[in-house]
Amino acid sequence: MEDRYGHWISYLRVSITDRCNERCTYCMPLELQEWLPRQEILSYEETLRLIRVAAELGVSKVRITGGEPLTRRDVVQFVRQLPQIHGIRSIGLSTNGTLLARQMTPGKTMASALRDAGAQSVNISLDTLDPAVYWQITGRNFHAQVLSGIDAAIAAGFEQVKLNTVLMRGRNEDQLLPLIEFAAARNLVLRFIEMMPVSTREVLNESSFMSILEAKRLIESAYGSLIWETEFRTNGPAAYYQIPGRAQRIGFIGAMTNLHFCETCNKLRLTCDGKLRPCLGSYLEFDIMRPLRAGASDEELKQFFLSVVERKPREHDFRNNYRPNRKMIAIGG
Ligand SMILES: C[S@@+](CC[C@H](N)C(=O)[O-])C[C@H]1O[C@@H](n2cnc3c(N)ncnc32)[C@H](O)[C@@H]1O
Ligand code: SF4
């Protein structure tokens, strides 16, 4: 699938729930109290069919996300179906990590059950090592659980475990170096992400926004000039750097300040209520649940995918005073 601007679409980010057990300030609107009713959420069977159709069109990578994907019942059984889909070669999950250490059966954690089911990589959100600040950011007291979840993911033997940190001035700029040391001690890739305007809470403003350039400067003042790894990519928008004198790799995702951010975009998103979104930072979304439930053939669904790709914008709208019509929690990050 190629769009009008030469983006080849090979990556589908699939949200399986709008629900979450945390309340991150930058993701969840305060006024959102009710979750979508069950019948408005794609069943696992419907989701798997859409992934199969997308795979037939050249999608080879899926990332399961939410809300918090691990709060949805039978998520392990769902993940187990993904490697069966012809063409899907890379299966990842994004999670807040709170449930990864949960015991599923004696001696088996959620993390190892997901690994056995075929998930290859897991991205875990961690914005701070300070439990009190963690609570302020997420509205929940789950810091220790997340640290156990990270250990459980490492023990489960994923091919890759990455940590994601959203940059917030006044909240976690003092945490960048401790987080780098935390990641180094566990041999994990850490990525710093610029905050994007995807929540209605007034959390993103000039005083709270921290650019990747500022983060990089701060890190370089402690470690020396970072070495850009031009050749290293993970199918996503991060730019990776090596810390001098170490094997450690850190990434920066600068959707707001990197003017070339969208040039290599290879992604489509499927929301849990069956909307295809060609871009996270655009108002465009297209309801594929309706034709799906009205009995569309695979061929018709393929045409639907192609028509969405045809409308993929050149770049996101975040820099144009963007006001989200949907929140991150309801899109799937
Ligand atoms: C929406 S979450 C869904 C998966 C899971 N609940 C989690 O927290 O990782 C996916 C990612 O989006 C990030 N995210 C959420 N809101 C954001 C925002 N306003 N700007 C930048 N990243 C954001 C989160 O930090 C997380 O790494
Ligand atoms: S970032 Fe993840 S954990 Fe935080 S509220 Fe959004 S979905 Fe939940």
Question: Would you spell out the secondary-structure blueprint of this structure?
Answer:
Layout (H helix, E strand, L loop, with lengths): L10 E5 L28 H13 L4 E5 L9 H7 L8 E6 L7 E3 L2 E2 H8 L3 E5 L5 H8 L4 H14 L3 E7 L9 H11 L2 E5 L18 H12 L3 E2 L10 E4 L6 E5 L13 E4 L4 E3 L8 E2 L1 H5 L4 H13 L17 H4 L2
Parallel strand pairs: 1-2, 1-12, 2-3, 3-6, 6-7, 7-8, 8-11
Antiparallel strand pairs: 4-5, 9-10, 10-11, 12-13, 13-14
Detailed description of the structure:
The structure is a single chain. Strands 9-10-11-8-7-6-3-2-1-12-13-14 form a 12-stranded mixed β-sheet. It has 10 helices and 14 strands. A hairpin with a 6-residue loop joins strand 10 and strand 11. With 333 residues, the protein is of the alpha/beta class. The two termini are 22 Å apart. The longest helix has 14 residues, at 143-156. It is globular and about 60 Å long. S-adenosylmethionine binds at residues 20, 26-27, 65-66, 68, 94-96, 125, 164, 166, 193, 195-196, 198-199, 328, 333.
